[in-house]
Amino acid sequence: MKISNAHAFDRLLLEAIEISDQSAGILSTLVLRLASALRDGEVSLQLSQQEQNALVKNERLTFGPSIGQVIETPLVLHGGRLYFGRYFDDLCRLASAIARRAVTTPEKDWLPLTQTTDSLSPGQKRALELAGNHAIALVTGGPGTGKTHLIQSLVNSMGNGQQALLLAPTGKAAGRLPALDGVTVKTIHSALKLRPGDLRHPLHHSKRPFEADLVVVDEVSMVGLTLLRQVVEAVASKARLVLIGDKDQLQSVAAGSVLGPVLQGSPALVADGEELIPLAQLKKSFRFGGTLAALALAAGRGDERAFFDVLTTQEDGVRWCEYSDARSLRAQLRTTTSQILCAHRHGSFGSEQINDFLASRPESQARPIILRRSDTKLGLFNGDVGFLETDEAYFGERRVPRALLPPFESAYALTIHQSQGSEFQSVGVVLPPSESPLLSRELLYTAITRARTGLTIFASRESLATCLKRSHSATPGLVDLILEGFRTVGSSNPP
Q1: Which domains does the chain have, with CATH numbers?
Q2: SS3 495
Q3: What is the pTM of this model?
Q4: What does the pLDDT look like over 192-201, one tens digit per residue?
Q5: Is the dihedral of CA 322, 324, 325, 329 positive or negative?
């Protein structure tokens, strides 16, 4: 990697590191690797024992700091992992905030379960119970497990005169949150009042928290480390915070796949048979079943045998098409009417080239489009997918004159990241050769769960096997720091 390709922040760090002696030379090499990892969403770099030994007594690093310690160096070495100081500080502050909330009892009333839970699944009932008794509750569930209905029930469980704030990481995700009387729905950026060019200093923080008794953050798996730390700190200490996500879904494109090990119920976060952080799992699906559900379950677990057993049955609208090269792939895609989802944006197997290829076919139907900018007055959001006819576009049942549309582009093919939060009747998933570093079980799971009834996977067996063996869902070190946070706040049930 060339230094010129690094982020501005990384370049400043690199300029601060002298390379005149052997230790500095090793450190500068590691910083380059860490900067590369950061752009791939990782906030730390695992070092070998030899690399750790080479950095001993280096004044540019803080070694093994504890939660609450002021970090005055650009780099931190903790638990055998190298961090940029700012991200380690974010991680410590998030871990400490989660631990404090987990041992705090909310201040305001919460309606008894019997008054609000008649139509809920066991997982939804547990989520309501946890939210009633704790200042933080985590909820994980796949598609169709009733997360939206749960949010409505959470709001209905509040006592009289209480205020709720519903948050999501994007305008598109916020637009899918339920519209409830007297309830504020915002993006996280909007709620924090983050200013363009200054994303480190929100208007709302621990000393100026949100004016809300209940804060619900949906699609939390899409929220990066810094933003999640900011929103958790901005919730009043005695208010209720509920974080909702899908533990198997693709993580944030920003640095830090934060809550993976927590949403997955890490054994380290259990003491005396009880979870240190309240966690509810929604397992009952109200609309997702059959072969698609079995395939998604196997993908989420990384169960290669079960996955291929289900896939090779090719039942219930599920098909598997292997291809040898880009030409054979295009031959198979030529007649497809499915929404194509790709792992990559660029290259022969990426959404851009495949989109151009599919757009070159004679059009016999409405043109699929994706919005590239939001228009809140029209209720349209960046990332919304619709269909364009001659004079108007439609998004579900809504129709919008073409002249009023914000900027858009063709969407015959999208990246799997772009498709998050959307569903399509039929989906075609294009996976690149197995050497691609983007392949992971989270990528495969997310692609599969975009389909309602039909799914075709265009991939080699090797690419699928690579997906199932590789997971990018966790931020190493978070669980250990949360445990340290419990010790710091003096939990009554320390681990």
Answers
A1: 5-92 (no CATH), 110-286 (3.40.50.300), 290-469 (3.40.50.300)
A2: coil
A3: 0.84
A4: 998 777 778 8
A5: negative
